[in-house]
Amino acid sequence: DYxxxxxxxxxxxxxLVRYNEAIESLREAVRLNPKDWVGRxxxxxxxxxxGDREAELEQYQLLMPDAPDLAKxxxxxxxxxxx
Length: 83
Hints:
Blueprint: H1 2-15, H2 19-32, H3 37-50, H4 53-63, H5 68-82
Helix pairs in contact: 1-2, 2-3, 3-4, 3-5
């Protein structure tokens, strides 16, 4: 499953603080599997961390209808970051 492989690669790259590469891998993962809600969440968290608010909001909006719990968790992170 290529989507899962890209998802795992993206998570590993994020742990190695290779955020741009992680974003590319996670984008490919969610392109291959649009219902990879955890992948979308991880992508949004990384985008939030590097200050890419537009990309973070895009993933948030995609999470809302089908993964509201993850969207709520992401919203909480956003509010904590603003403090």
